[in-house]
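Project standup — Tuesday

K.O.: blocked on the structure for the chain from last sprint. Re-posting the sequence here as requested.
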Amino acid sequence: MRVGEHRLITLLALSLLWLGCNPTSTPPAEDAAASETPTTPAPLSPPITSECRPVDHVWDPATEPMLLPCEPTTEPCDNIDNDDDGFTDPHCPTRTCTSDSDCTYNGLLPDADCNFHPTIHEGHEPYPPGVCNQIDALPIKADHDLCWGKLCPPALKCVLGECIPPGTGLPNTDCTSGADCPLNAGCIPAEFETGEGDVTTGRCVWFCHEFSCTPDTVCFYRENLNEDTGVMHSSEQCCTPICAGKDCGTDGCGGTCGDCAAEESCNDNGVCAPECTPHCRGKTCGSDQCGGTCGSCDDASACNLETGNCESCPPQCEGMVCGPDACGGSCGTCEPGIPCNNDTGQCSRCTPDCSNKPCGGSNGCGGPCPITCKGTCDPITGECGD
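H.V.: unblocked you, prediction finished:
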């Protein structure tokens, strides 16, 4: 059968299937009412094409485009196009790469990506970073290598060696296997692990170097440098901007949450605040009046907060083994489980005593007593009044 005849038959079959799933008759009243109920929009997925290549057809690259097979095929990972279909080692780690697009054959194979981490599968020698692989990483230690060398017909995804209809998981939603995610999305652990690890839930990571993201996400280009090999790996993934409670600053996806006015600056919390000029002239320590400091002092000195300068401060630790040294430092620490009596500077097992002290004060062990007075505390006598 010629390729044109096979495409025509395939298109007719799909048309009949569509008509069977979409009747033109008017639905019953209750069904019509139910159809008006708002539903969650279906996620964007790679376009589905009915064009495929019969497995016994010899591809002519001079006159025909590359097409996926009409039935699943498998070839060895040996850097050879064994069936002369234009695909060399699909999903195979024998193909080196520096970006995800190096593995997807211009979108024909969207369920492949470029591994930035080492590729480890039981029964195989580890492959270094920078090789192609099947797009999913969960379940951990599963037989993802069963997709090495395998091509699926159009609109089907290779998951653990089987060609199945892809999932519908939206970007960054939970998944437990590649079957939960679309054709151009991999089920990848949030904290990627290889080897030991009880990682059972990941997220659907959508790759967007050839396909669109959902309306609430953006395509984010990122680069990762492998320090062991010195090779830069690039990837484009759908990213959800995070700007809740922010006026400015990064949105986590390469963009911003907004800009501040000319007289304002963006603080670390992503909020626009009036410009603040640090005041540190003549100061070596203390506040800069903008939330920062003008410096710090060494262990032999303390900051005079009034002048903003470090002044000599001999530690006062005579006869003490723990507690503050009156210069911002410590006279030592106690063994675990033994508290320090800050009043005496000694390590001792002490029972706090706060009886008859409703207005606070020392508990006898170097700590304060809580204020339990429900009236007014006399600042002179420390007694609780009505």
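K.O.: great, moving the ticket to review. The first helix runs from residue 3 to 21. Confidence is low (pLDDT under 50) at residues 1-45, 193-197.
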